[in-house]
Amino acid sequence: MKVAFLGPESSFSNEAAKKAFPKEELVPVESISKIFESVESKKTDAGIIPLENSNEGSITQTLDALASTELVIIAETYLEVNQCLLSNEKVSSIKKIFSHPQGFAQCRTWVEKNFPKAELVECASTAGAAKKAAGEKNSAAIASMSAANKFGLKILAKSIQDSADNKTRFAVIVKKDFSGAIKFPPSSKEFKTSLLFGVKDKPGSLFDAIKSFKDYNVNMTKIESRPSRKNAWEYVFFIDISGSIKDEPIMKAIVELNKHCAFIKILGSYKRIE
After folding, report:
1. Co-location of 93 and 68 in the same domain
2. Could you report how far apart the first and last alpha carbons of the chain are, in Å?
3. What CATH number did the domain enclosing 64 receive?
4. Which residue range(s) make up the domain with 230?
5. Domain assignment of residue 21, yes or no
6. Is residue 127 part of a domain?
7. What is the per-residue pLDDT across 16-66, written as a single tens digit (0 to 9) for each?
8. What is the per-residue pLDDT across 160-181, written as a single tens digit (0 to 9) for each?
9. Alpha-carbon torsion, ordered 247, 173, 106, 64, to 10 deg
10. CA-to-CA distance for 143 and 11, rounded, in angstroms?
11. What pLDDT score was predicted for residue 201?
12. What pTM was estimated for this model as a whole?
């Protein structure tokens, strides 16, 4: 089986892919959108995508892609993210730093304190940033320790993220007709269900929609809005709830939710890969 991840190798997405698929063929691609395209076109059987970071929140590119795809989520996993400063230069000579936008965001305070005048250059992945730093003078990268080994860089500083408890949540996506064909290592017992919906344009519509979860004692653990990209100032809402779509209270809550929505899309019911 082939699994697409945000490459190149030694990215945090690569580490998450190894955790979820330790025995499968892992295929690096250049962007989150390319992961979706790879799975949709059946170039790969599955993909692993970053959903959110514990400190910086959701990955908006991922949410936007989930809103427009027919792929479904079948599992999630969490990865501890230890950001490092990598370079073969002296600290005093570093004038440019490469990293993924999330890497910069997670290390914002440290970078401002230690490199207030450095040029910050965004890359598609932290591993790609390390590759650039290895080939350019007076530069460094914010990336993983494994990226240092991969691209022959020295680790100048470890754990430079602003929060010690820094984790990223990843999701496994597949085509609907392939969702039952993948077996995972031992996982948590609890299900999580993710879905998105759009409410009707009238006062109190969002309140009326999500009230169904309280009425049926369903725990909604997350809600977030994103522009619909169809009409200006029109939004869709992403939510996570505890439990499976097959649980009777959740089925009843979603039936009630549907009465107040313009549309509903179930993204998947799944467990966590430990």
Report:
1. no
2. 21
3. 3.40.190.10
4. 192-273
5. yes
6. yes
7. 999 999 999 999 999 999 999 999 999 999 999 999 988 888 899 999 999
8. 999 888 899 999 999 988 766 6
9. -90
10. 8
11. 76
12. 0.87
Number of separate domains in the chain: 3
Here the tokens at position 140 are 């460094």
- Are residue 48 and residue 170 in the same domain, yes or no? yes
CATH code for position 226:
3.30.70.260
In three-state form (DSSP H/G/I as H, E/B as E, the rest C), the secondary structure along the chain is CEEEEECCCCCHHHHHHHHHCCCCEEEEECCHHHHHHHHHCCCCCEEEEEEEECCCEECHHHHHHHHHCCCEEEEEEEEECCCEEEECCCHHHCCEEEECHHHHHHCHHHHHHHCCCCEEEECCCHHHHHHHHHCCCCEEEEECHHHHHHHCCEEEECCCCCCCCCEEEEEEEECHHHCCCCCCCCECCCCEEEEEEEECCCCCHHHHHHHHHHHCCCCEEEEEEEECCCCCCCEEEEEEEECCCCCHHHHHHHHHHHCCEEEEEEEEEEEEEC
Catalytic residues, which ones?
168, 170
The verdict on residue 37 lying in a domain is yes
What sign does the dihedral 39-43-46-49 (CA atoms) show? negative
Q: Indicate whether 22 belongs to any domain.
A: yes
